[in-house]
Design a protein that fits this description.
Strand order of the largest sheet: 2-1-3-4
Number of helices: 8
Strand content: 5-15%
Distance between the termini: 29 Å
Shape: globular
Structural class: alpha+beta
CATH architecture of the largest domain: Up-down Bundle
Radius of gyration: 17 Å
CATH topology of the largest domain: Glutathione S-transferase Yfyf (Class Pi), Chain A, domain 2
Length: about 220
């Protein structure tokens, strides 16, 4: 059986949603980052990088969101969670890599500036730069979703729950970013559409995501 270690409302939610979409038996074990449970010895034995998600399959451990989403799509090909066309598949993977390497780090700069500088004087500049860059990337996401149901058009793929996560971060009470996602019209329509998928609704409720407001 598949086992997913996740933290509520973190990037691991994408893998959580895809497991629910697949419909195969799985176990989801929360590792609360805000409580620093990812730094506990029992979790570090699974993932020494102290990050989520981690996926356990037949005693083997896979980490990193892009790798896990790609593995699940290919492990269950009948669910058609990646485009069949090789070029389209590469474009889908390219977008997920961008989300991981560019979009996510900008929010981390906003929320955890102490990870990027030792001098507290620099924190405010790091936070504001991250905030503005995150905002610009969200407009890029908004353009990617223009006139589409999902990132790849009419087909739901593993990239879509990954896109969903960043919109939810506009509403984090512990890290208010002070931006209005309503200005992202295509992104907002996409989020509302995603929230109507049964698997997505299930995980939003389970993780107590602020995106439950769209259910």
């Amino acid at each position: 059986m598949l086992t997913l270690y996740y933290s509520p409302i973190a990037c691991s939610m994408a893998s959580h949603i895809i497991l629910e979409e697949i419909g195969e038996p799985y176990e989801a074990i929360p590792v609360h980052i805000l409580k620093e449970e990812h730094k506990l010895e029992k979790y570090l034995k699974l993932n020494p990088r102290a990050r989520v998600p981690s996926l356990i399959m037949d005693g083997k451990i896979l980490t990193e969101t892009v790798a896990i989403l790609t593995y699940l799509a290919r492990r269950f090909p009948h669910k058609k969670l990646l485009p069949a066309d090789h070029w389209d598949e590469a474009q889908c993977l390219s977008t997920m890599a961008w989300l991981s390497s560019a979009v996510h780090p900008t929010f981390r700069h906003f929320g955890r500036p102490e990870r990027f500088a030792t001098d507290p004087v620099a924190f405010s500049t790091i936070k504001e730069t991250g905030r503005q860059t995150f905002w610009s990337y969200c407009f890029e996401i908004d353009e990617l979703l223009k006139d589409k149901q999902y990132l790849m058009g009419d087909q739901f793929t593993v990239a879509d729950p990954y896109l969903l996560i960043f919109y939810g971060w506009f509403f984090l009470p512990e890290r208010p970013i002070g931006l209005s996602p309503e200005k992202l019209s295509h992104y907002t329509t996409f989020v509302k559409r995603m929230a109507q998928r049964p698997a997505v609704r299930q995980i939003l409720k389970r993780e107590q995501s602020p995106l439950t407001q769209f259910i």
